[in-house]
Specification:
The protein is of the alpha/beta class. The protein has two domains: about 150 residues, Rossmann fold (3-Layer(aba) Sandwich); about 80 residues, no CATH class. About 40% of the residues lie in helices and about 10% in strands. It has eleven helices and eight strands. The protein is globular and about 60 Å long.
Length: about 260
Amino acid sequence: MAEREPSFRAVIFDVDGVLVDSPHEAAWREALAELVTGDWQELRAAGSWSDDAFTSEVYRQVLSGRPRMDGARAALEYFAVPDAERRAVDYADRKQARLLQLIDERRFRAFEDGVRFVAAVRAAGIAVAAASSSKNAGLFLRAIPAHDRPGETLLEQFDADLSGRPVAHGKPDPELFLAAATELGVPAAACVVVEDAITGVQAAKAGGMAALGVARHGEAEDLARAGADLVVSSLDEVDVAALTEGRLVLRAPRHG
């Protein structure tokens, strides 16, 4: 890891996949299935799509962490859909409508280790920000109770929330994370970004920040290859006290 300040002074969180097991993947998959069985039926006949083509691996590699339009375009290009630029608008709109329906149906849950980690970082005197590419992140954060703070939501625990803020360049560009650091008044070198997406890790490193990868689906090698300084399967594994010393390391195992 590059030389850093004596302590980490801010932790910047992605939301989807880090704090919330959200229905984004389902919304992308179901929206595309609706289109190819409806308005885009010619794609099925042309062999550009099959029912089992949209896997979780495709979501993680192609869509996860990207702004909505970028993700729609990338997915259609991945599936070699003709006229992807134009069709991406319809796909993004259909995905958003499906996502809102899934949210209304409460098809999401909090990752409790993430909720605990936010509370622990705050208790250590470190600033926290939410910085998701998704404009829907606030809907999730408002619906999740804060850890050991009755009556408060997870959203209320953040010193800044930049989720869904328009940026000229989405991840892997660091613009959103750098904006979060600026809003917190903390230099990039004193920030840790918590991400589950390859593009998010790349954005953190491009911005001169430390990257903490959360591998909830066995993608540890991919996150490490993208440049993550530490990869965990649960945020309970992180030594929060070490952050105040400028170290991003695992907690020592407990014995007895």
